């Protein structure tokens, strides 16, 4: 059997092995969702419902259909604990409303992973490895990280993980869940912290949701921008 090489990348990242007949999509997208201890059960439910609603929205499906292959692949990761980020929904190929409904159902049904502190750098490392080992090929690979606080306890700082993911061809966008006027320990709005520490790559951007009831709207607009 022919062996396939794996390209080692900084920080232990490895590119997916080259393989014939790997399905192609327009975008590989990992949704990195905050499940840390700052989020209670009601907030967590609202967050999951917001993601399910946004992923199956007609505007998002229209954006997918507008792309050359008319399909993307999406996975969901929950993060929080240092070194503890967990893939809670594996990659789903989305090309139509039925695909989107199946993904939304998987998002709503997935058990909550045990998480604690905000370890964003470790979450980015986990997501980058997931993208580089994906069962699909795509010209665009994106991490979409949402959270309500800055990086606190990562084994590797967020900026380091971000820079290495970008060097591997991954773009990172962020969704800051923060009320108007809220500032981080750095004395700046959370969105500004995410611009400085998290977002990276050509065209990377940060959007803000004022609370978890606003996630569906903010995420829907963000997905349309990322996909189209």
Q: Any idea of the CATH class? A: Alpha Beta
What's the arrangement of strands in the largest beta sheet? Answer: 3-2-1-4-5-6
Q: What is the percentage of strand-forming residues? A: 15-25%
The portion of residues assigned to helices is: 25-40%
Pfam families: DUF1194 (PF06707)
Protein name: DUF1194 domain-containing protein
Signal peptide: 1-20
Domain VWFA: 28-227
In brief, what are we looking at here?
The chain contains 7 helices and 6 strands; from the N terminus they run βααββααβαβαβα.
Question: Can you offer a commentary on this structure?
Answer:
It is a single chain. The chain has helices at residues 41-55, 58-65, 97-109, 120-132, 158-167, 190-197, 215-227; strands at 27-34, 72-79, 86-94, 140-147, 170-177, 206-209. The chain is α/β, with parallel strands linked by helices. It has a 6-stranded mixed β-sheet, sandwiched between helices. Helix 5 (158-167) links the parallel strand 4 and strand 5. Residues 1-10 have low confidence and may be disordered.
Descriptors for this entry?
signal, 7 helices, Rossmann fold, alpha/beta, 228 residues, six-stranded mixed β-sheet, DUF1194 domain-containing protein, VWF_A, 35% helix
How would you summarize the topology of this molecule?
Blueprint: E1 27-34, H1 41-55, H2 58-65, E2 72-79, E3 86-94, H3 97-109, H4 120-132, E4 140-147, H5 158-167, E5 170-177, H6 190-197, E6 206-209, H7 215-227
Parallel strand pairs: 1-2, 1-4, 4-5, 5-6
Antiparallel strand pairs: 2-3
Helix pairs in contact: 1-3, 1-7, 2-7, 4-5
């Amino acid at each position: 059997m022919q062996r396939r090489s794996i390209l080692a990348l900084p920080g232990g990242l490895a590119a997916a092995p080259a393989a014939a007949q790997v399905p192609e999509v327009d975008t590989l997208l990992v949704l990195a969702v905050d499940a840390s201890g700052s989020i209670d059960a009601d907030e967590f439910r609202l967050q999951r419902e917001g993601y399910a609603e946004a992923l199956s929205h007609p505007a998002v499906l229209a954006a997918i259909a507008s792309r050359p292959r008319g399909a993307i692949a999406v996975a969901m990761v929950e993060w929080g604990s240092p070194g503890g980020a967990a893939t809670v929904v594996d990659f789903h190929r989305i090309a139509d409303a039925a695909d989107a409904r199946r993904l939304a159902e998987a998002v709503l049904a997935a058990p909550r992973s045990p998480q604690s502190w905000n370890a964003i750098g470790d979450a980015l490392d986990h997501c980058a490895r997931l993208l580089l080992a994906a069962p699909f090929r795509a010209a665009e690979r994106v991490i979409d990280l949402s959270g309500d606080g800055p990086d606190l306890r990562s084994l590797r700082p967020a900026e380091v993980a971000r820079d290495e993911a970008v060097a591997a061809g991954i773009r990172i966008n962020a969704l800051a869940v923060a009320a108007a006027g809220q500032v981080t320990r750095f004395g700046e709005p959370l969105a500004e912290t995410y611009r400085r520490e998290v977002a990276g790559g050509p065209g990377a951007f940060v959007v803000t949701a004022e609370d978890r009831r606003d996630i569906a709207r903010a995420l829907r607009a963000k997905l349309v921008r990322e996909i189209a």
